[in-house]
Amino acid sequence: xxxxxxxxxxxxxxxxxxxxxxxxxxxxxxxxxSPPAGPVPIPYPNFAKASDTTGGSKSVKMGGKEIxxxxxxxxxxxxxxxxxxxxxxxxxxxxSITGSVKHKAGSFDVKIEGAGAVRFMDLTTGNHSNPxxxxxxxxxxxxxxxxxxxxxxxxxLAKNEEERNKLKKATKKTKKGKxxxxxxxxxARGNTTISHAVFRGGGEVLKAASKAVIxxxxxxxxxxxxxxxxxxxxxxxxxYKQSARPHTxxxxxxxxxxxxxxxxxxxxxxxxxxxxxxxxxxxxxxxxDPCKHCKKLICAVTACLNIELCHKGKPSEKPDCPKK
Length: 324
Known about the structure:
Elements: E1 6-7, E2 10-11, E3 19-31, E4 40-49, E5 53-54, E6 74-75, E7 100-103, E8 111-112, E9 115-116, E10 123-128, E11 136-138, E12 140-141, H1 150-167, E13 171-174, E14 177-180, H2 182-189, E15 194-199, E16 205-209, H3 212-217, H4 251-259, E17 270-276, H5 292-301, E18 306-311, E19 314-317
């Protein structure tokens, strides 16, 4: 089944999904020839697929079948090490071949029956008896996320406006009741950039504001890199210039750096980004265009991500980057 359910922007793994484990290394097994020349320890790659999921969810189903759970479910069999033989001891640690693949990672905040939901790129270990042979890799997915379109951009742009209007009315609790958060309201009414984005389609909506006062008021806004950081964590090798007003505080940077702070960082995918920078761009630019500094970051990141920029009343556009 093609992936249609996403958790934190990553495809959900389950018995009905197309997820796979591809070439986890090294599964070191004792292999022919027989004594006295052997057996010889040889590292093998392991392969497994989600259709062999067992020990998954019972009360929640995807496609009518169980869902992968961190620390509970497994792919009941693997292949790739069949050339080794049980008579010679098989796996160096597990003493097994074609053993199960276990899910060692999952979502921190989306739990099913008390365990983290297993997603695309979550850690697995292979050829298990107990313990496993230590060959680790990530859960992969052959299906692509749904493509973003005009409707998705319209929703993200609407969230920018909705969030700004909410911040314009920000309050704080006092002993006498509620009181206006003047610094937050001022920032929201000024030239502060507010942006929303979706990574990998149908997943978590990421939001960021260029003013720290807003991040301090609502910690669901992405923080990004610490001020003064020079090297970007994102692909493409971008470097930030040292400045009294560092560009790491810009919304585009906060969102992109948050995505690449994941373990492991993404190597592909689509980021749809809706920027709202009122009064900021130069003549001839739109409030939804990135500044020149963020444009350099965005263009660098196109080395591994497909990036779409949203503009009001128009389909999403690819960034206008210099030809390499």
